[in-house]
Amino acid sequence: MNWFRKKSPSSHQMGWKAAPKAMVWPFKNRLIFALLIILLAFSGLIARMVYLQYHHHETYLELAEGNRISVQAVAPERGKIYDRNGQLVADNQPVFSLSFTRERIPDLQASIDNLALLLPDIDQERLSQFSQRITRLPRHQTHVFPTSLTDEQAAIFAAHNHRFPGIQLTARQKRVYPHGQSTAHLVGYVGRISEQDLPRIDRARYRATSTIGKSGLERFYEDQLHGYPGLRRVETNARGRVIRILEHIPATPGEDLHLTVDIRLQQFLEQELSGWRAAAVAIEPSSGEVLAFVSTPSFDANLFVDGISHNDYNSLLTDPRRPLINRASRGLYPPGSTTKPITALGALELGYTNMTRRIFDPGYFEFQDRRYHNWRREGHGWTDLKRSIVESVDTYYYKMSLDMGIDTLHDILAPFGFGKRTGIDHPGEQAGILPSQAWKRAVHGEAWFRGETIISSIGQGYNLITPLQLAHATSILANRGQVVTPHFNQAIEPKVDQLAIENRQHWEYVIDGMVDSVHTPRGTAWSSGRQIEGYKIAGKTGTAQVFSLNDQEYREEELDQRLHNHALFVAFAPAHQPNIAISIIVENGGGGGRTAAPIGVRAIDYYLRELR
Predict the structure, then answer these.
(1) Would residue 337 show up in a list of annotated catalytic residues for this protein?
(2) Most Cβ neighbours (<10 Å): which of 272, 415, 459, 489?
(3) CA–CA distance, 206 with 211 (Å, rounded to integer)
(4) Of these residues, 70, 337, 388, 583, which one is catalytic?
(5) CA-closest candidate to residue 519, choices 414, 588, 408, 597
């Protein structure tokens, strides 16, 4: 065993050369280099600090304050609406809602999902639609979810508010309509501001408001009711929660609106017309103040304030009774025999008849081999002008109209407001149609036929009116020619004109005929007016055909209800010192004396005996 190791040869012995010695910086040099780097870095920071703090101090101070202090618009309280006796018909109710500021919400969809879990009773479809809508709007603006929270929902959210940065519980004023359906077509409703509304508003004035008047008086008097926004500067924390209010400029509330309408008469007529597709308008003739403005069926205007649900809106749209249509000022109907007193007055004034002229009525009138029937098939026999009003004798007007011609008929009815808007302070009024030769050439490109004059003389053919126009014309008749523009706002000074009256006896003669129509056994409204005592009602019934009979006899019992005649009634009372004029139209109500007249007489009696 070899206890000794063999010695390894050295590198020198193996012929290898030794490596050169490495160059190493002294410690002092390395320290100086490090100090230079640090000095350069601090110099850069100092230069940046001087740049920010000295040269751009104002700019960055403003930006910093913006992160801490925000300016918020304060919504004005909307003006309230009262009836003529001070009863509220449109009020404001304090409610809680949720406001969203998207730039402070880390994840909008996650927040919406968590909110849906926290408040399962909230309208999920509307919440989803709202979240989609605000993604298209500026991130820095605050948007209010237009659905009121219940007290319980508000309490639950308040307890979990820390989980929802950028979403705050907000107190706001919600529009409410205490009388619901009774005033829906009159007052209208407010709704969320849409893109269609933007061209008609001052955006600065609406920066704190999410709703605007959509229909009715809410729309017409939007400028008066809305008011002007206020301002407040608030200090907020990083989550956007208000810490303190630095400055507050209160909003200017909207002006209240006092109406001429009596809500008691409004609801009385609504109840009387319940179950019918109908309209009624009542006016005080001397002042033009509208006392009632009813369209049935109606709808609950409160459904639209926070945004109506898809199902509710679909239900209203598909309802065959068409409750969304304002029949009082937008419904167009043939006036039927309600125009006969005005036609009779014009014929007397122009000399086409007189108080003693009589014609024989066999129940029809023949012209160019065609027979135009009277409503009473057996006829009325010998008839003068007053009897033609009392018993509504068609034949008298058939014969007289051929002498007058359509243009004379037009010129007689036009001063009473037919064929044009009344100018009432309410949006969407229809003008109706008052035909003439020029009108037919312009609209249909055809000449006028004399046979068309015959049916126009009893308010059929092309003639179309609204219940509002009919009430206005009745008021002019009640005023013996004084024309007062109808209006809803008590503060309005109405425009007043006067029709030329050459012979006062002609007016009283025609009005006496209307009185006899209600108060004598031969009158078409006798069954309704015979129980009235203490005053006289001047009235006229009307029946308007829905479709042409083609010389066949009208048999109501054999027709579908939608093909029944429309029933009309106009009246004013007391006859010789009128306080109320009224028009009633009942769609497919049959004869005017049977359906419309009883309602009109009861409404007049209720107003004169109980309300005045």
Answers:
(1) yes
(2) 459
(3) 9
(4) 337
(5) 597
